[in-house]
Write the structure tokens for this entry.
Amino acid sequence: MDVRFSQEEYLRYSRNLLLPQVGLKGQKKLKSASVLIVGLGGLGAPIALYLAAAGVGRLGLADFDVVDLSNLQRQVIHSSAAIGQLKTASARARLVELNPDIQVDVIDTALTSGNALQMLARYRIVVDATDNFPSRYLLNDACYLSNKPLVHGSVYRFEGQASVFDGHQGACYRCIFPNPPPPELIPSCSDGGVLGVLPGLIGLIQATETIKLILGLNSSLMGTLLIYDALQLSFQSIQLHKNPDCPLCGKKPTITSLVDYEEFCGSTILSGKLLQDEESLKITPAGLDEAIKVGTAITLIDIREPHEQEISRIPETQLIPFGSLASQINRLSKTDDIVVFCRTDSRSRRAVHILRSAGFSRVRYLVGGINAWAAEIDNTIPQY
């Protein structure tokens, strides 16, 4: 394909053109390239911005979420004015404003086993900027079956990881992590938090590796897992090796088609809807408020972390952090009516199933957590 540049583009990319490793030939490769970015949150924001600025000719933006105020601490592609908008629409507007010479596709549907291969088909490189295990496993499997490299990144609290996976040349994600972890061990940024600048740094590493793949430069992270500790300001590199017993890319693969992993991971992110728990496991803020007012004896268990209770609290509650629940379960009585709550209800829903499995038949979770309580019952309590 004959790739041409306008005078404005020569000026726009002049600092790229001055690099001998890029030059005019490399800039043409960038303009001819197509990259799919899955996730437009903390990681996807810097990735999209810098790939657009570098002149990657076609960017696919896949996300079905909307911009929320709590996103803006780290998702720098969005603005306060974009709150409530689809992230794809907000991001596309910013990218076109930054570089009107590129093509930006928006994909507003959730990634599933039914559409993943079709979603990936138009792009040469896939960047994993998601925040959940179901999507990571699905993208890894889809990239392997499509013979496309996957530029991986993840963040949690003060730690980030990045790598490039290609099961046809080396290790894939499953070579390192063969199966999704059990639901009770899955952390999330919404529950545990993340330092706002951290996904910026990891995202830039992903953007760098993506550009190197396009230019034909050796990927520094192919076969390497880079771990960054923001508190210690330290980097650690772990060499990865292809697992001959990998269920996807090993000698005798057992995974030959795509499946959705939300049930394995205890997540419903892919389907975009809440789990349909039994009504007996739930209590609404209004229901709890009424029970308290009529004098029903209820044991309220706050399973958040101590520093979260400093932000907001419901009176007359016991604090048992989720991570300590198993070791402190003897503090609870199986004859009591127990209601557990967290910030929203992601941790408390898992806590209910843990307690039910341990024989606590009269335990429920507060729907929407303390944030819902603050919104519906006591607006003096701050939401976070």
